[in-house]
Design brief:
Blueprint (H helix, E strand, L loop, with lengths): L1 E4 L6 E4 L2 E4 L8 H22 L23 H5 L5 H11 L10 H8 L8 E12 L6 E12 L3 E5 L6 H8 L7 E6 L2 E2 L5 H11 E4 L11 H11 L4 H14 L15 H13 L5 E5 L7 H16 L4 E4 L3 H4 L4 E6 L2 E7 L8
Parallel strand pairs: 6-11, 6-12, 9-10, 10-11
Antiparallel strand pairs: 1-2, 2-3, 4-5, 4-7, 7-8, 12-13
Helix pairs in contact: 7-8, 7-9, 8-9, 9-10
Length: 353
């Protein structure tokens, strides 16, 4: 039995005891049919709920899982968790107490790495370091009994001709290689025979590297290049960016933070590399021919940056074969055939300024 009520738009039809409104006019079409179908489904679900409400199962949402703190989160970040605005800023300042304005306190980092050791303890203590490549008659003795100490705050230039052993010594001091024999203490810890994973951890936490070829990632900005060591250290993201910006400001490139390497000059790229070396607040900075790819004027500009860091307390080892670059250091060690043939202080009057 079919009954009709009304006419025209909004016509109602009754069929099988059910009433529904049939749309008409411009509203009719696929979209209206979908809406009608959805409405019918809702009504059917409502009727089933009313008919079988006593048997309906209740679906509960899964219990919330507590979120674990990010590995490697700094104590400063943990202390300022939940703080905002002025309180957060004051917390950041208090966490960074002892850091020079716009710079990084390496003396503080060195004391922390050595467990609060006295300031006169050497950052480096090398005793009878020997490095032999190959075996038998073809063996090459790159280092032959190298011994010296380097104290916190010193800037030492290691010089020598090609094949003198200075690069081999730099690799051992930078935990990139291990000596065949001898003892090497870094901040009081014997690292001469550690495994590769332990050496990698020390490189990330205690050492900063500056190389001749810059080694910047070409498709990332200066800021992202500087942040990279902190990514490996799993640092707090907000703190990472702030520290990277501080280091870029320290080398005079805060206004180039979002430039890619191909938008920077050679000297600016080396400044980014220096900032990257500083971002983990190392106790020792190793610079291997940092001016080798630069012109004379830019070379002296880069050395002024390194000398300024040394005046702030940074301990620096500089590998070079150029005497005018070595004069920026306050100590020179000369290698020949894998042996130290000279170790002298550079008088203030003779230092480059």
């Amino acid at each position: 039995m079919r009954a009709k009520a009304g006419a025209g738009r909004g016509e109602r039809r009754e069929e099988g005891g059910r009433a529904r409104r049939e749309p008409s006019g411009p509203g009719r079409g696929p979209r209206s049919c979908r809406a009608l179908s959805t409405s019918s489904k809702k009504r059917r679900r409502a009727r089933r709920r009313s008919a079988f409400g006593s048997d309906r199962r209740t679906v509960r949402s899964p219990p919330s899982i507590p979120t674990r703190s990010r590995r490697g989160r700094s104590s400063c970040s943990a202390r300022r968790a939940g703080q905002t605005g002025t309180n957060a800023k004051s917390s950041i300042r208090s966490c960074r107490a002892g850091v020079p304005a716009g710079g990084v306190s390496v003396k503080r980092a060195a004391d922390r790495a050595s467990g609060g050791a006295a300031a006169d303890n050497p950052v480096i203590r090398a005793r009878e370091l020997v490095k032999i490549y190959g075996e038998g008659e073809s063996a090459v003795r790159a280092l032959q009994g190298v011994s010296f100490d380097l104290r916190a705050g010193e800037m030492c230039a290691i010089m020598g001709a090609s094949g003198s052993g200075k690069s081999t010594l730099m690799h051992i001091l930078g935990c990139l290689d291990r000596p065949t024999s001898g003892e090497y203490l870094l901040d009081g810890r014997d690292v001469s025979q550690l495994e590769r994973d332990d050496l990698a951890e020390i490189r990330n936490e205690r050492l900063g590297f500056v190389f001749q070829s810059f080694n910047l990632l070409s498709r990332t900005t200066a800021l992202e290049n500087v942040e990279l060591p902190l990514v490996y250290a799993r640092g707090d993201r907000v703190d990472m960016k702030q520290r990277a910006l501080e280091c870029l400001d320290l080398v005079g490139l805060a206004d180039r933070a979002h430039h890619q390497p191909n938008q920077l000059s050679g000297g600016q790229q080396q400044r980014v590399a220096i900032a990257r070396a500083l971002v983990n607040r190392p106790s020792l900075l190793l610079a291997d021919e940092p001016t080798g790819n630069l012109d004379t004027q830019t070379s002296h500009e880069i050395m002024e940056v390194l000398a300024g860091l040394n005046r702030r307390g940074m301990t620096i080892i500089l590998i070079t074969h150029e005497h005018d670059i070595a004069k920026y250091a306050d100590r020179m060690i000369e290698l020949r055939d894998g042996r130290i043939v000279a170790d002298r202080r550079v008088e203030l009057a003779g230092r480059a300024t």
